[in-house]
Amino acid sequence: MSRHSTESFEEKPVQDSASVSTQDKAEAHARSVAQPEDTFNAAEGAPLESAISYQSVPAQPSIPNGGTLAWLQVLSGFFMFFNSWGLLNAFGAFQVYYTTVLIPDSDNSAVSWIGSIQAFLTCCITIFAGPLFDRGYAKWIVYFGSFMVTFGLMMASLGSSYYQLLLAQGFCIGIGAGCIFIVSVAIIPQYFSTKRAFAIGIAAAGSSLGGVIYPIVFHELQPKVGYGWTTRIMGFIALATLSVPCACIRLRVLPPPRKTIVDFSGFKELPFALFSLASFVGFIGLYIPFFYVSEFAGSSRGDLQTKLAFYMLPILSSGSIVGRILPAYIADFTGPLNVLAVCTIVAGVLGFCWIPIHSSAAGLIIWSLLYGAFSGAFVSLQPSTVVSITDDMSAIGGRLGMNTFCAALGILIGNPVAGAIVGDGNWSGMQAFCGGTLLASSLLVVLTRWSRTGSTMLKKA
């Protein structure tokens, strides 16, 4: 790749001055005008690695903390979340249609593997995309991810069998979503040293809005224009919204090069090991309502067996918008571990409160809003929480990547297990499974806090 072509697609990033000496600054400047391959030709990066931590800290002169370009990164992150986790949040609409109309020979457990693989790849692809981001290829990652998401939706519109949908929606969209997800999380802290958790929370709210808009589009258009054209229209929506990050993403700094791609050293520290286990256990149950709430509402007695049953999923996602932003704002003042522990406990209790709701539309609407609000913190506060338990900021990229991979394993098994539990209508067992995993995760979050700060209740953590 020539120097001219490299400079044409990426703004020249420079290494953070806090991590280098005066002599190293001159060398970093020389490297900043070189090709990315020349800059890091022998070093291996780490997923989500950045020279800047994800936790809010006092303002630094080198970081803009606002301005048009900084907020364009937040907007870009919003649309990347919209088309990564937003599509995943909308999978419940596809789940119902696939099991009842398109591929009725496949049961809930088999169909949920499509969404679980999509979610798993969204998380674990960061291990491979992260080093490319560190080397200055943010725009190319966004280009590739945007193409894969759009292409996956277009191919899913042509699918009529299980394996075709698994390849298009599970693998293709999952890989693309993972590419744009890594950039959406990693780019914002380069522009904000104050209110970082809040800025990430705003971007993460895009996933909730996607979980509102995409299911409604699918539900309203599918009877009118058919499954194929409905999915293609969703592909055009993805293409239009992803054009924003394709045009606006700009790297501001490059981190110091690292020798390893995957960092396992964090598991030697008790707080990180406990929180990684908490992420694994929590994500087993976290997305069960997003996959099954519409089907549950349609199979219930009373006034739920109406058109309103489908809208339980958009209602759940709309509650999650608040859950992405408000806890992140509070976490800047009280600490992410404190907020995450409270929100996860409440979400676990709500999992059990789902059991007695059999036929009341009003009851399920209220429950959906509350669960969406309290479960939303689990996604938006993950980066800030990992940073709050990490002392060596140079290792933060590897820590975030490994923690996200643990969450991916939880997602991979959680929803298929829930589908197997439901069987011929064992909803209470599935609901208890959801609540139990979240309460177990909340206990692990509390233990993480205790291992980090002790038993002091009022300390920021």
Low-confidence runs of at least 5 consecutive residues: 1-12, 14-55
Structural class: mainly alpha
Instruction: Give the domain tally.
Output: 1
Task: Please state roughly what percent of the residues sit in beta strands, choosing from under 5%, 5-15%, 15-25%, 25-35%, 35-45% or over 45%.
Answer: under 5%
CATH topology: Growth Hormone, Chain: A
State the strand order across the main sheet: 1-2
CATH homologous superfamily - what is it?
A: MFS general substrate transporter like domains
Distance between the amino and carboxyl termini: 45 Å
Account of the protein in words:
- The model is unreliable at 1-12 and 14-55 (pLDDT under 50).
- Strands 1-2 form a two-stranded parallel ribbon.
- Helices cover 71% and strands 1% of the residues.
- The chain has one domain (68-453): MFS general substrate transporter like domains (Growth Hormone, Chain: A), CATH 1.20.1250.
- The chain is mostly helical and 461 residues long.
- It contains 20 helices and 2 strands.
- It is found in: Membrane.
- InterPro entries: MFS, MFS_dom, MFS_trans_sf, Proton-linked_MCT.
- Its main location: membrane.
Task: Characterize this entry briefly.
This protein is mainly alpha-helical and 461 residues long. It has 20 helices and two strands.
Fold blueprint:
Layout: H1 3-9, E1 14-15, H2 22-32, H3 36-39, H4 68-82, H5 85-89, H6 91-102, H7 108-124, H8 126-134, H9 138-156, H10 162-187, H11 196-248, E2 253-254, H12 270-286, H13 288-299, H14 312-334, H15 336-353, H16 361-375, H17 377-380, H18 382-388, H19 396-422, H20 427-453
Parallel strand pairs: 1-2
Helix pairs in contact: 4-10, 4-11, 6-7, 6-11, 6-13, 7-10, 7-19, 8-10, 9-10, 9-11, 11-14, 12-19, 12-20, 13-14, 14-15, 14-16, 15-16, 15-20, 18-19, 19-20
